[in-house]
Amino acid sequence: MEHILKEELLLTHTQTSFLFAIPNLMIIAVAIPAGIVADRIGVQKATGIGITLISVGAMLRGMTDSAVSLQGYTFVYGIGVGWLFPTLPKLVGLLLPREKLEFGTAVYSVGMYIGAALPLAITMSVIFPMVESFRFVFLVWSIPAVLGAILWWTLSRKTLVLSKDHKPGEVSKGNFTQLLMNRNLLLVASLFLIHQFFFNNWSGWAPALLLSRGATAELAGLISSITLWVGIPTGILMPRLFQKLESKKSVLWISSLTTTLVAGGALGMNLASSWVIMVLAGVAITSRFIILMTLLVEFVSAEEVGAASGLMLSIGYVGGIVGPLIGGYTFDLTGGLDPMLFTLVGVSVAAIIISLKLRETRRKIGTLR
Hints:
mainly alpha
């Protein structure tokens, strides 16, 4: 709805871009304190707070009457996103045994992909023609969040069985400094920064790249969405493969090698080859995300996962903001996207090198410092 928001609220492209960046900015700002709070008050309460803030912000956006109010309400929404994200790895670590961590991570990864792909697919083709107002569109998309908040507060205490080792309130008083010295955690955070740099740059500029290769706007949108749609079956099928592998870091360097080939192949891509390239990108990006979120749980103790995930998310989402900005700047400067693709090749090579420096987790959790 960018063109609609721009016209009705008298915004520039830069201002609408800032609206889209607010949630990522809030993840950077809020994830660390939110993760620490989750360790102290318990993951169930912390998760509920995040979902509630998302619901409130989503509903308020449907009541906006100016660009300033929309920006403010989006900040509320973004705080909720930043608050919720660090609780997801912690929930998986406390709900599931070690051998099922990949499966649990894949479950919420698939949910995230569906949540991203479905609105892209039906907002302008189905919902907006029905309601004829961007405000009502915001209200429609607030419904899942509101229902999720209601279900969480009413059912989670009765249905979630967390690890007995989880004791809220005993951690995060002096442990954060120790986390900053956890070499493997910092390596994972660096990989997550590169992952977000690649993913946000790739997904953000893929339509423009395809337009430059001769696609229509509709076809460019369809082909670009393949990366997201492929993430759904990848998230469902890959955990079974991961469980059979002794080496998780092999998944990381192979995924990063694949993104290197994807970015390099896009330099000479035509419309026929773009379908294959988008599929490979989706498989590699999803696989790398699942392994990174799993390793996060394995490299720290259960009581530290909230703070550790907050640290990783705050570092990682810097890449999610800087990446597209660099892509856009070089696009403005050169009139083409080849410099962006060369940059993605470079960061993917860096991801391969960092992946090879990680220690294997084997079967022990929280001992690799």
